[in-house]
Specification:
- By secondary structure, the protein is mainly β.
- The strands form 2 sheets. Strands 2, 3, 4, 5, 6, 7, 8, 9, 12, 13 and 14 form an 11-stranded antiparallel sheet that branches. Strands 1-10-11 form a 3-stranded antiparallel sheet, with no helix packed on it.
- It is globular, with a radius of gyration of 16 Å.
- The chain starts with 23 loop residues before the first strand and ends with a strand.
């Protein structure tokens, strides 16, 4: 039986985990993210797989954002790590990227460019163990940004179904298409 490679968390996670309780951690290696519908039916216990989709470009760099695999069926960054409160995306033969800050109405994004330091991204992420006392959880940790696990939505942007944090009208998404999701941390297992 194979078990996921998990880095043991520090005794106390950083301040980006404040208020999230004893199940919060800010160090984990080799996982993917999935969007679990918070209000409607789900076809499985993990939710819709997320990938790093193209989100545009600026001079000398590319922007990436989390979108469902169904809406962007490419996946060159095949895993994510949580390192000292920042998300680090990993992939073979890929350009380095660093996590961008996330504010109300924004996407969870990355700046992809040669020379980027992935560990120097925004320190705003944490994960929280699913410890539903009623036993109704999925068994997967939830991702938090800015100390919040409950304010993510999937919204349509062109042909992509993109993750937004606290979506607000007129920020590039079809606001009427948005629905709330929880972002689940799905640890990779390898035989």
């Amino acid at each position: 039986m194979a078990f996921p490679a998990v880095k043991l968390p520090r005794a106390t996670p950083g301040p980006w985990c404040d208020g999230l309780g004893g199940g919060a951690f800010d160090e984990a290696l080799d996982f993917t993210l999935a969007a679990y519908n918070a209000t409607g039916p789900n076809t499985n216990t993990t939710g819709a797989p997320l990938v790093l989709a193209s989100g545009g470009a600026i001079s000398g760099a590319e922007l990436r954002r989390f979108a469902t695999y169904a809406s962007f069926p490419f996946n060159d960054y095949t895993s994510v790590s949580l390192m000292n409160g920042t998300l680090v995306i990993n992939g073979a033969n890929t350009t380095p990227a660093r996590a961008l800050i996330v504010q109300e109405g924004s996407q969870l994004g990355f700046l992809v460019q040669n020379g980027a330091d992935p560990t120097a991204g925004a320190q705003i992420y944490c994960a929280v163990a699913d410890v539903d006392p009623a036993g109704h959880g999925t068994g997967h940790p939830f991702l938090a940004v800015n100390g919040d696990t409950d304010s993510f939505s999937l919204c349509q942007v062109g042909t992509q179904n993109v993750v937004f944090y606290k979506p607000i009208p007129d920020h590039g998404e079809d606001f009427d298409s948005c629905y709330p999701v929880k972002l689940q941390v799905i640890f990779n297992t390898r035989a």
